[in-house]
Amino acid sequence: MSETVAIHYKDAQGAEQKIELPVITGSENEKGIDIGVLRAKTGFITLDPGYMNTGACQSAITYIDGDKGILRYRGFPIEVLAEKAKFLDVAHLLIYGALPTKSQLLNFENEIAQHALLHEDMKEMFEAFPKGAHPMAMLTSMMASLSAFYQDDEGAAGEVFDLNVVRILAKVPSLIAYGYKRSVGRPFMYPSTKLGYCENFLQMMFSLPTEPYEVDPDYAEVLNQLLVCHADHEQNCSTSTVRIARSSRASLFASVAAGVCSLWGPLHGGANQEVIEMLQWIKDDGGDVKKVVELAKKKDSGFRLMGFGHRVYKNFDPRAKIIKAAADKLLGKLKVSDPLLDIAKELEEAALKDAYFVERKLYPNVDFYSGIIYKTMGIPVKAFPAMFALGRMPGWIAHARELSNDPANKIGRPRQIYTGPNVSSFVPLEQRAGARS
Ligand code: CMC
Question: Is 367 a catalytic residue?
Fold first, then answer.
């Protein structure tokens, strides 16, 4: 007999009742209680603010064991992919469920290279942004605006969907690079079909029409690693946003644009910008990491150690390990030292010895060391969250595709427990007290 969980409760008349709910078991033996019939049969809903303990779907894309620090895309450990795979290998793996063959990868790369050009009218849209616009403000708007340029009906996941997958992966690097060029008042550089994905992005960011530019292979390699590490992370805030948006049958562009908005916040993808700003602030303030650790422990300070802590990882974040090693390798190879890297390491050491962080299982996350690398490459600090978005695109797309291919997919629509006033009588204007809650 299949596994069930029994819930005992009192009904409206106070009589003892019991309901058996089926248990769903995942391929890694994760267990969930299927509460689909709970409300219809008992009148109860579940309440879980912040979705701390709510499974929103079954998914075959990414597996995380936060207690053991495990992250796998379609079964492949992140450590292996970060060392051996190209970002577009990983994109194909996440979206289509298998590593591409040689010819599939070549096709995928070619198609993406062909679609990297932006519609020329988009340049005018870039011109309309104020000079100091945040890169994420531009990326969210431009991402959503792609749905105005490409209006073909996707239906569920089919040929048009696949074309839009290529369009998104191809155009996001161009959008970020164009936004950067706009912010520094330099000419937009067109994408090149002769360069690899990461090389092309670096070329668009940093080359100028006035002089030859050679992509630094170390930068391209480390960028590839960073993008692979960011490519998916199952039901995080932005991916859940993409799934919810897509569940209403919004276009892929619109759904992904919603994901970019959600990623922007400092508790999510915006943390990589905040980490570097925090490290800079520590340096300018004399470099006392202990003082900062103390400040982060004070709840009323409103300050958190940025790049620390994770909803799921309670031992270590495997991506942070890879990225810390990559930062050491890159800076070592370039024979440059960055005082912010030294401060980051001191800060990590101080926090990991502190009972507050130990008790709460707070470790450096993916955002703690990534900014050091981006900064070394010359990427402006405000653009770091956009780099996270670039890496996360395949994950968002993979989840949108999985959801669209699921015949049981329903529009995402959580419930609530209402806590407002009971039925109120309308008050004429001159008699209103006007108190706001
Ligand atoms: N500094 C100080 N205290 C912290 C921190 C931190 N970075 N993170 C969590 N805590 C404390 C928090 O105050 C709470 O303490 P208490 O139990 O006494 O109330 C406890 O640890 C649990 O925190 P929480 O906010 O309930 O945990 P959460 O799972 O809701 O939040 C988090 C996870 C990532 C939002 C949070 O750790 C945080 O704000 N970190 C800093 C921002 C950051 O680095 N975000 C990037 C996350 S990784 C990239 C991504 O996928 O987005």
Answer: yes
